[in-house]
Amino acid sequence: MASTHPDTIQPGQPPPQACSQCKGVRKTFICIQCNNFAFCDECWPKWVLHGDGATGYNGKPHEKSDPKVMERLRRTLDPSVSEAEKDRQLEVDDETTWFGVVRDAAQRESLHDHGRFTMLMSESSDSGQQTGQQYPQLVSFIGQTGK
After folding, report:
1. What's the DSSP call for residue 51?
2. FRET partner for 117 with CA separation of 20 to 30 A, picked from 11, 23, 47, 108?
């Protein structure tokens, strides 16, 4: 039977995953190199691939990963949403588009400015002068949108 350590479980948080070794229900860490097995602090170093001097891919040691962070990354990088939901999300995000490549009637591509940057700059022109800091700062994600 799995043991429970209440001192390691945060109130209001979902119960942690059971340790792959001792089966205890306590705070665990995911090891990506070990096929996503979960290990508690006590069992982590006991696993043959986590011992002193043990290395994994490219000679690097196995790392403890927070299960919550891993789950968030999985949902972000491999979302399980339908094509209809993707289309809806893209429509909602359309007003946040700063620029993009569009085709004219002759199918020639050109860069189209959607006015978002100009709007942000006009809204923030006074605050930047007062603080001496540039706002907003430009961050760009370039690549396929999934559409």
Report:
1. S
2. 108
Token pair of 81 as six digits: 């949403």
For the chain, give me the number of helices (H) and strands (E)?
3, 4
Locate the domains of the chain by residue range.
6-77, 83-125
d(CA 47, CA 21): 8
* pTM of the predicted protein model: 0.44
Compute CA 22 distance to the chain's CA centroid, rounded to the nearest angstrom.
29
Under DSSP, is residue 127 helix (H, G, I), strand (E, B) or coil?
A: helix
Q: Which two tokens stand for residue 140?
A: 């760009």
CA 32 – CA 29 distance, rounded (Å): 10
Strands (E), the chain: 28-31, 37-40, 99-103, 109-113
Give the Cα separation of 17 and 67 in Å (integer).
8
C-alpha distance from residue 37 to each of 6, 21, 140 (Å): 22, 9, 35
Q: What is the pLDDT of residues 79-122, one digit of tens each?
A: 788 889 888 888 888 777 888 888 999 999 998 888 887 887 77
